[in-house]
Amino acid sequence: MFDALTARLTPVLDRLRGRGVLNEGNVSEALREVRRALLEADVHVGVARSFIETVKSRALGGEVSRGVSPGQQMIRIIHDELVELLGGDDEGREIALDSRGPARVLVLGLQGSGKTTLCCKLALRYGTPDRRAALLGLDPYRPAAGEQLKLLAERIKVPVRVAEPDTDPVTEGIRLCGELEADGAALVLIDTAGRQTVNEELMRELSVLHEALDPAETMLVLDAMTGQDAVQTARAFADRIPCTGAVLSKMDGDARGGAAISLRAVTGLPILYVGVGEGLDRLEPFRPDRMAARILGMGDVVSLVEKAAEKAGSTEVLAEEGRKFIEGDFTLEDLRTQLNRLRAMGPIQSLAGMLPSKLGGILTGAEVDESSLVAMEAIIDSMTLEERRRPSIIDGSRRRRIARGSGRSVQEVNNILKQYATMQKIAKSMKRRF
Fold it and tell me: What is the fold of 3-86?
């Protein structure tokens, strides 16, 4: 996510950090490079121009913070203006759900943008035993769309209804929404029909459907990989239908980031979520301050910790694991738990994007083979509980037995034990520092 843009901006920001004095010449030079990076990322030319002018005005306007170098002050201005461009401090909200009765969420977008997958991701995210979610497919033109929705609904075990072929989607929408809500659904996620391009027939149908169903949220799904085309699509939809927010799908792909940076300024639509993978749990709330930090190579450690805490069960569990590591109580059993959690958090490359650019670059450049994590787990699983807790007892015969049990080589077993010994040395070093 934003990898190419971050790579272009990082050297510019590094040079700014070293500036003891800023003048119009070096500010203009740095901002020319920033502007070029934004345009290469497919940011709308008007948005890029306005951004650069605002930053330059503030940088040369005498803003001073005590204890902060001029270069760092410039970076702070760029960060703050980028946050504002992405939506400001008031974004990152969850979807509106009315506790007093059923809520309907209408999901719009072009064909192939990811509407169906988003409906299922939202059902998985917001459906609870106390607030039952349901799915409704209103694409009577493509039977395959309904079948896809049914298959995904079966995976996440939520009720689903699909409009019959060649029926009126408005009439079907009213009828099937009523059925689902009568059966106890408190949240109905409505997957609408799409087209290859925006056309008058589609807009007219969706406008009537919106008026008939009166949804609590109307979410527009945009393919981030289409760049400025996504922004133009958003403008066409927003001009005809009162959308409450946008979702950028495929942000884990080869998306240059221009759509995310331009969307709010051009259309006024807030970005609510970004899709970061095909898995139904791969949906992240869009938080402008954290996204700005990632774009500028500062990382998003807060989101990384939140992901880890979610998989661990709580931040208290993470704190206890950190204490055990520093105290030297970290065992191979603990390592196995963390490997399993790491794989559950998503692809290693996506986690690298949440680290500051210099640290994340180590993981990205290393091209980590995630199958090696599976192999490590298999080796540790082949150990006895006593061996996991006291690796020092693992002699040659035990290593051969562990290798046979895991289907790996003795050399791989040796490598894991060496890595564990290295971790122990690092822990002792950290303990001395604390």
Answer: Four Helix Bundle (Hemerythrin (Met), subunit A) (1.20.120)
